[in-house]
Specification:
Layout lengths: L6 H15 L4 E5 L14 E6 L4 E7 L2 E7 L14 H10 L6 E4 L5 E6 L2 E6 L6 E6 L5 E4 L29 H48 L4 H10 L8 E3 L2 E7 L6 E5 L7 H44 L4 H19 L6 E4 L5 E5 L2 H11 L5 E5 L6 E4 L9 H13 L9 E7 L3 E3 L6 E3 L3 E5 L3 H8 L1
Antiparallel strand pairs: 1-2, 2-3, 3-4, 5-6, 6-7, 7-8, 8-9, 10-11, 11-12, 13-14, 14-16, 15-16, 15-17, 17-20, 18-19
């Protein structure tokens, strides 16, 4: 806990630090530097820099209130902090004046700093924190932090003294050291909680998506066995099958070679004949196999990512070095920011055949490229079964991309997905019109794709680095 002093401790502490403060000139009113916190400083803290190069720090935050003396080199100022009206008023009124005395109001947690013709009263009562600059002669308020009606605090008779924590007052700088120790731990805990909250949010989002993917996989697994239908039709093409009708539904009746029972294979008028039905059912079967594999890969990746997040949470909980924790948070934040913001814009390449190839290297760029830039008949590339870069091969009207250009675009998708060292990898491609955004997410799904197997080679690396 923050070492908030009771009135007895405050008296003892002020007596201890008085020799280092009285007759010292206030060189500057500034804000103390707190580099362990993200902002670099804390609100409602002021530092009176004294002519002996020590400092008196006033902290008036809820639950963290104190007046503390810091020896030379124990604390520094934060030059980039913005100043409140109260800060500016203090600078105007007391910078350059000399401290004539410092004392407490007996029986109260009020501290009085006596200046020439002015007094600065500081209330260290957690429920009524305040700082008031008054004229010594008539006690009229010149400047007040809370801007409420002011009256001079009166001494209060106490029947007995409060218990004291002697370890805070062995030396003049011990109390300031205790405050610094608390702030280090507080900053560490605050950073841990923020990082864990971010991980919890990612886990929740990922779990929700994974459950949706599992439901989609169940639906795919419940689809008819199109491959079986295609095989049965192929085996019976010589029979010149004709569609039959029952309950206003048309079908081909084909005998199964497994149990000799007759199966009703749905008939579609637009497919016209058994040959076309066979081809279409094989196509649907391949499409389902690819979709099933894609969904399984997504679930496997999510499971792996959730495991990583759980490990990271455990790791964060066991870190007690604020510098190390800040380094981890900075690295994590840098990765997140590079994934969320446009890292220099969508990257443009030109194939040897003169086709333009566009690459998205972050989540924002991927969505921008796929959903806004690409046209329906452009070709869209993505590494199969892994999160990664979206690549769009722009197809001019009445032109077809040669194989070398397709392979080039596929290698770009692999390279910018982090696959430089993956070896031979499958990259799917399809027309942009076959790519749809998944409702409520930043992901897409695609259909009617073909697959290329590519590998990053030295020649390719040389071509994109020149």
């Amino acid at each position: 806990m923050y070492p908030v002093l009771n009135w007895t401790e405050l008296e003892t502490y002020v007596d201890l630090i008085r020799p280092f403060i009285v007759n010292q000139r206030i060189q500057r009113i500034s804000i103390p530097a707190r580099p362990i916190f993200d902002a670099g400083f804390l609100k409602r803290e002021w530092m009176l820099e004294l002519s002996n190069r020590s400092a008196l720090v006033l902290s008036l935050r809820s639950g963290q209130c104190s007046i503390a003396w810091y020896a030379e080199g124990q604390i520094s100022r934060f030059s980039k902090a913005t100043h409140s009206t109260f800060d500016l008023g203090l600078k105007k009124e007391i910078e350059g004046t000399t401290i004539e005395g410092i004392e407490t109001v007996p029986g109260e947690r009020w501290c009085r700093i006596r200046l020439k013709r002015k007094d600065l009263f500081v209330a260290l009562i957690p429920s009524a924190l305040d700082a008031v600059l008054v004229e010594t002669e008539n006690s009229k308020a010149i400047l007040s932090l809370r801007e409420k009606e002011w009256s001079v605090p009166l001494p209060r008779k106490q029947d007995h003294k409060m218990p004291e924590r002697s370890d805070l007052f062995s030396k003049p700088g011990d109390f300031a050291s205790a405050i610094e120790d608390f702030l280090v731990k507080h900053a560490l805990d605050e950073r841990k909680q923020r990082m864990i909250r971010a991980i919890d949010a990612e886990e929740k989002k990922l779990s929700t998506r994974t459950e949706a993917t599992k439901r989609e996989l169940i639906a795919v697994q419940a689809e008819p066995h199109y491959a079986v239908w295609g095989e049965l039709l192929r085996a019976n093409l010589y029979l010149n099958l004709l569609p039959q009708n029952e309950n206003k539904k048309s079908f081909y009746s084909v005998q199964s070679y497994e149990n000799n029972e007759f199966l009703k294979i749905p008939y579609r008028a637009e497919w016209a004949n058994p040959q076309t039905h066979m081809e279409q059912y094989f196509r649907l079967s391949k499409r389902l196999v690819r979709k099933k594999l894609d969904l399984e890969n997504r679930i496997a990746w999510a499971k792996e990512r959730l495991s990583e997040l759980a490990h990271k949470k455990s790791e964060i909980g066991n870190i007690f070095d604020p510098v190390l924790l800040r380094e981890i948070e900075t690295k994590t934040r840098s990765r997140d920011q590079s994934d969320q913001k446009k890292s220099g814009g969508i990257k443009h390449f030109t194939s040897r055949d003169g086709f333009s190839v566009l690459v998205g290297r972050s989540k924002a760029e991927n969505l921008e490229l796929t959903l806004r830039v690409a046209r329906g008949n452009d070709l869209w590339f993505h590494v199969r079964g892994r999160p990664g870069a979206h690549v769009v091969l722009q197809i001019p009207a009445k032109k077809n991309a040669p194989l070398q250009t397709l392979l080039y675009a596929a290698k770009l998708a692999l390279y910018f997905s982090g696959g430089k060292g993956w070896g031979k990898t499958e990259v799917d491609y399809t027309f942009r019109k076959n790519v749809k955004r998944i409702s409520g997410s930043d992901e897409v799904q695609y259909s009617n794709n073909k697959t290329l197997v590519v590998e990053i080679d030295p020649e390719f690396l040389s071509s994109i680095q020149t």
